[in-house]
Amino acid sequence: MKNLKYIGLVLLAVSFSACDVNNKLDPIPETPVVLENPNKGTADFSKFVSVGNSLTAGFTDNALFQIGQVNSFPNIMSQMMAPFGGGSFTQPMMADNVGGMLLNGNQILGPRLYFNGTGPATVTGTPTTEVTNILSGPFNNVGVPGAKSFHLLAPGYGNLVNLATNSANPYFVRFASSPSATVIGDAMAMSPTFFSLWIGNNDVLGYATSGGDGSNPITDVAMFTQAYTALVTTLTSGGAKGIVANIPYVTSIPHFTTVAHNPVPLNAASVTQLNTALFGPLIQILTALGQPNRLSLLQAGNNNPLLILDETLTDLSAQITGALQLNGVPAAQAQLMGNLYGRARHATASDLVTLSTSSSIGTTNFFVPAPFNTIGVTYPLRDSNVLIPSEQTAIKNATDAYNAVIANLATANNLALLDANTLLTQMSTTGLKFGDFTFTSNLVFGGAFSLDGVHLTARGYSFIAYKMLEAIDAKYGTNFKKSGNVPSPNNYPTNYPNGI
After folding, report:
1. pLDDT at 31
2. Which residues, listed in sequence order, are joined to residue 67 by a DSSP beta bridge?
3. What is the pTM of this model?
4. Stretch (H or E) spanning 142
């Protein structure tokens, strides 16, 4: 598109030069842009504190690392706040640009990703950030990757001993003021005059990324309400003003929209074999049982649907096993097929496959005999790999309830509100313009989302900072935009190379 734009400008220039030289157009004088002097309105930015999770910390490309932290949206905002009386802004910096983390010298979190020209790859290098090397705070940025709303209120969430029981967070362990500290308590140690709060994403994201398999349940709305109310009450208790952000629909991000429901390539020979020996007989049995639409015959080509496990379906394992045995299939094989396909179906466009599943599709489950062991083709994807429609509905309902709580508390406490949900929905549908760029939710080339499909790029974080400052202008009478103190997307990259 840029090349076309420049070609258009060249053609336009040629047409002008072809005019009679005696009829040259006088140049159109440029109207100078007059920027206002900074006006902080009714806000006090002298002690800005940012509270949240990985999005606040600057997590990107599946890791937290130094340059990502430098380009976190709170740090970008703090730079824009400097002419408005903003003070210093400290962050609990990681030890390197590799990402990942060590615990007593053993790697517990892996390095970041980078784009190698064809797709995401792991950077070379070894993490050097050691959990037990406790940092001395307090810090202005208390974003803790992985934190849910109620974690920010939990004593001991930064206690090294509690890592053994998964009741602590290694990122917070590094900078907690004491083993019994809370995230919100350490934030208040800064005596904030202004704050940002963006929390609640993980309260639904954990459920979503685990495919709704029950291992990471959605936070109960009552619990979220109690936790969020306590956070806002505490942050405003000293008279601080601030901005809160609501929760986007996580099902619209690249982690759930990149892998198609029908990416399976099959040649004619494979199709004939699978339809004759497997799917044809299964469809006959399911049809007799009144479930003819669970499976479909495969076709030669690149767009066969994935085979998935749907736990909401009636379990027909025993019926399939019995029918196969009646047709002469050996008992052991009939039992295996009944167990595998009792709740199996082919995916539809309404199913969302997680990004992490892409690497396993078409590989072999070595614990299952052929031909039933090709993952996503003859071996159904597990519950943890796919968000089926009912699970998506549960996520949406919880997100809507959370956002109602956030909006009500923003109004009640006279806080600015960033509608991140609407912004990211627009990004995933029509695209969203920022400067000379148009953001989409496409992985790698959409500009906004990093290689993990969940977190933002540096340019994406600059967009969040821009929109937060815009909302602050509207609420508190500041003039970040009119004074030119807003980030430009041109100053922030969409990816970081290997070896920085």
Report:
1. 64
2. none
3. 0.91
4. strand 141-143
